[in-house]
Amino acid sequence: MSSGTPDTDLWLERSRFNGMLLGGVSYGVYFLLTMQAIISLVKKARQRAAFTHLVLLSYIIITFILATIGFAGNAKYTQTIWIDSRDVPGGPPVLITTELDFWINRMALSCYYVMEWFMSALLLYRCIIIWDRNIAVVVLMTSLFLGSIAMSVLVLVQSRIKDFYDINVQIAYLSLTVGTNILYTLLVVTRLLMAHGDVKRNMGKEQAGTYITIIAMIVESAAMYSVLGVLYIASFATHSNCSNLIFLSISHVQGIAQLLIILRVAEGRAFTGTVQTRSRATTTLEFGVPASHSHGNVSSSEDQRTTVMGGGSAANLKKQPSGLTSIFRSDSSKELTVIS
């Protein structure tokens, strides 16, 4: 069957339609991980009444609501493109290229930007904690965080008067958010490698391997969003229709990367690594727990925790970075907590 529509317009329509399908798949994965993370965190909060778990639970719910509103807006406009307004002059290609002229798309874009603010704030917090509130790291990462917020607001303002691909600030915003994600990963990995070296020198290679597990998890999670972000920047900068395949999924993928870490923390998998000490005790490393929440007093009771600082053996370790807590669980159920 022949068609009078140019091939370029067909490619534009196909890319937008397939992008929405991919967005539905990514949202489905995001939805599933959100439910799993909520269930796990609720269980942990009941067991420990941990403030950190309650904060993470609030973060998950807020970002999920924003993602759902954004996805619903995109789904509604997809219906508008090919069903409700398909007979407008120029057809679906016109509706696709002028999508930000419609309030529902600006609303969806705003929801995803605010969602990214929350996700960037969580990255900022983790980075500051693990670097023990180092002033240089705090200033650098906070500046990048505030800069991304300012640019996203500027994009939303200009979206009312310009075509989306003509908003040059959008490229700067995308580059800043992806670059911040990569920089965060490098900073955290560097700090963990420093801790890995300290533990390896004081306790041996076996115990230090736990940090490698944490590093691998962080790199794997960050790579998901970073790779997709670089592809999106390249396609957006060249005005390629390939950007439509990524645009409706990229925020979901960023959320998935965060949820994978949170879920592993909540369930005690991957984010918390375990190895065996010489005395057959188990070493557990928890990343991202402020030291101020974990200090205790020395006690011989089975249910007490002992705080030790220094250098030496499993009972007397070199100081580790703040935000990293080592717990040694012995066969007699005693716990020796080493906190910096």
From TrEMBL:
This is Uncharacterized protein. It comes from Tricholomella constricta. It comes from the Eukaryota. The keyword Membrane applies. The lineage of its organism: Eukaryota, Fungi, Dikarya, Basidiomycota, Agaricomycotina. Signal peptide: none annotated. Keywords: Membrane, Transmembrane, Transmembrane helix. Residues 291-319 are annotated as: Disordered. The chain crosses the membrane at residues 20-42, 54-72, 103-125, 137-159, 171-190, 211-233, 245-263.
